[in-house]
Design brief:
alpha/beta; Dihydrodipicolinate Reductase, domain 2; 2 domains; 12 helices; 32% helix; globular
Length: 417
């Protein structure tokens, strides 16, 4: 059972009814007898009627295949569909991920597998395709002709208990491989022929395959300096990165030459999740002398923010009221908490409902896993060879200094946290 608990004040009766239908059965990881007992219990509850089953495998990585194999052979219904939810990590590199995928596909069909990443259940992620494909003002601009760079920023202010699997490749396997690359795929993919999950995943995997393998010179790794007084339950080795900054390039006609800049880290000054899309400067700008020496301050920008306050911001140049002609960069602001008086479902609630509905577009397919690991392989190899050492940074600070230079290298102005 997943450790996350959802409870709302107004659903006490429903919660009691739900809990009355929950059962605990200790069957072990590879205990076929236990799975057979689970199957018998479910069949008893189903009463011989057609029923569908969802299995949430919230188990340690080393036990996943034993549980999945035993489940496949002993606990699947024969009178409906079976769906299996798998938690991160989805392997630790291309080889281990492929081995795991092959083992799972020997027991299940691809359409049964739902690889869950709770960050992909955020409203911001679901809204990416809505903004792109249902607004005429955005879709024609969504290419290299108008967009100068794209930044995906995810910073955690407090270091959470990451568990054993975080040690090794750290934030690369935990955040970058799934959440960050999936976000970029949804941002950069071509329009799918429909909203069917497979049609969307087909376009995502195409753009992931178009992303150039990461050059280690375009990557900055960092690790927070944990002291004995810090309340952090993470045992890190000397090469485990807790911070990752990189410049990605997509080699296709739409995005050629546009840097996609990633900044993801733990133990930073602020909790922040946002996407910043910066547009090119206006050619031959008549108001250049009114802007001042830093033209970048007048760059139009679309900001999609999830944390701290969910919002869509459009940065435009505007005349300051009054005499004279002075320009100011202002934000057109759609702040969700002011506009919508609705309760936003938790990410897990959203994704679990998608599993029930059979909507798999926010879940990674096996070929997406492979394409994403291929992008990161050169960096992982350099870590294996001890050729990359993470830069240390202060817990609660702004991260490695090297990330500032990486942004400057690609001609992008750093946005302060």
């Amino acid at each position: 059972m997943n450790s996350t608990t959802f409870f709302r004040e107004d659903c006490g009766d429903k919660m009691d009814a739900f809990l009355s239908r929950t059962y605990y059965l200790n069957g072990g990881y590879d205990n076929r007898e236990g799975m057979s007992k689970l199957n018998a219990l479910m069949e008893h509850m189903e009463g011989g009627s057609q029923a569908n089953r969802i299995f949430y495998l919230s188990v340690p990585q080393e036990a996943l295949l034993d549980v999945a194999t035993s489940l496949a052979d002993n606990a699947q219904t024969q009178k409906g569909w079976n769906r299996i939810i798998i938690e991160k990590p989805f392997g630790f590199d291309a080889v281990s991920s492929q081995r795991l995928a092959n083992a799972l596909l020997s027991k299940f069909e691809e359409k049964q597998l739902y690889r869950i990443d709770h960050l992909l259940g955020r409203n911001l992620i679901e809204n990416l395709t809505v903004l792109r494909f249902s607004n005429l003002i955005f879709e024609p601009l969504w290419n290299r002709t108008y967009i100068r760079n794209v930044q995906v920023i995810l910073s955690e202010d407090l270091c959470v208990q990451t568990g054993r699997y975080f040690d090794g490749y750290g934030i690369i396997g935990d955040i970058v491989h799934s959440h960050v690359l999936q976000t970029i795929a949804l941002l950069a993919m071509e329009p799918p022929i429909s909203l069917d999950g497979e049609d969307i995943r087909n376009e995502k995997v195409k753009v992931l395959r178009s992303i150039r393998k990461l050059d280690p010179s375009n990557v900055i790794l960092g690790q927070y300096k944990a002291t004995s007084g810090d309340k952090i339950d993470v045992k890190l080795n000397s090469l485990t990165p807790t911070y990752f900054a990189a410049a990605l390039h997509i080699d296709n006609g739409r995005w050629d030459g546009v840097p996609f800049l990633i900044k993801a880290g733990m133990g930073l000054i602020k909790h922040r999740m946002e996407i910043r899309i910066q547009f090119h400067n206006v050619p031959g700008n008549l108001y250049l002398e009114r802007i001042g020496h830093n033209v970048n301050l007048a760059t139009n920008e679309l900001i999609l923010r999830d944390v701290p306050d969910e919002a869509i911001l459009v940065k435009v140049n505007n005349k300051v009221p009054g005499l004279g002609l002075q320009l100011d960069a202002s934000e057109l602001n759609l702040l969700y908490k002011d506009k919508y008086n609705v309760e936003v479902p938790d990410s897990y609630e959203h994704l679990l409902l998608d599993v029930i509905d059979g909507d798999n577009h926010l879940f990674m397919r096996s070929d997406e896993l492979t394409a994403a690991w291929n992008i990161l392989t050169p960096v992982l190899q350099e870590i294996d060879k001890n050729n990359i050492a993470p830069e240390l940074y202060e817990l609660g600070g702004r991260g490695p200094v090297g990330a500032y230079y990486l942004w400057a290298k690609h001609g992008v102005q750093w946005t302060e946290d």
